[in-house]
Amino acid sequence: MMKILFHVCCAPCSVACITSLREEGMEISLYWYNPNIHPYTEYKNRRDCLSEYAKTLNLPLVMEDQYGLRPFLTGLDAGDLRNLTPDRRCAFCYRLRLEETARTAREKGFDGFSTSLLISPYQAHALIGEIAQALADRYGIEFLYRDFRPLFREGQAKARAAGLYMQKYCGCIFSEEERYIRRMRP
Where are the domains of the chain? Predict the structure, then answer.
């Protein structure tokens, strides 16, 4: 049985992933590290929802509880916003969270790591896989790749039925801004 540290961006995105991995016989521990999420109320809602959800599933949850807007923006080098394309900022965000996941998985003796980011049709799937594999190689731990995207709608429906907090954007300050800009357009 493979022991996996599973990075979770939010509880709704984890629902179908957890089911799928359990069906494969994986031993899963959930991992919360998302310093990109803004504002704090959103961060808290997602964190608390995942914490409660993990209890209902009787799954261990490793929590790096760091609301990190300032370190996130500093690391992103957001000074020149004209050069801050979605590709550049998303790559930074994936690397930040997945590196901490890979490092923690190795430190705590897991066989491998994966992420709920792989379920979203809105994320850069190939880029996530590329970054995660490079980190797996660096830390000497397996990256468990799965294309969970075909399970996205089913997982979202189950999350709604379970009453999980459903967010409206990926979580970063830039995606929140883009959400409002789209709403204002005629």
Answer: 3-184
Residues in contact with 165: Cβ distance below 8 Å, sequence separation at least 6, in sequence order: 10, 11, 12, 45, 46, 48, 49
Residues 128-178: tens digit of each pLDDT: 999 999 999 999 999 999 999 999 999 999 999 999 999 887 787 777 777
Report the distance separating Cα 173 and Cα 153, nearest Å. 25
- Architecture of the domain made up of 3-184: 3-Layer(aba) Sandwich (3.40)
Asked, as a colleague might, if the bond just before 121 is cis with ω within 30 of 0, I would say no
C-alpha distances in Å from residue 66, one per residue of 36, 69, 124, 138: 10, 9, 24, 24
Locate all alpha helices (DSSP H) within the chain, ordered by sequence. 11-23, 40-57, 69-76, 86-107, 125-139, 152-161, 173-184
Place of tokens 């801050």: 84
The 10 Å Cβ neighbour count of residue 75 is 15
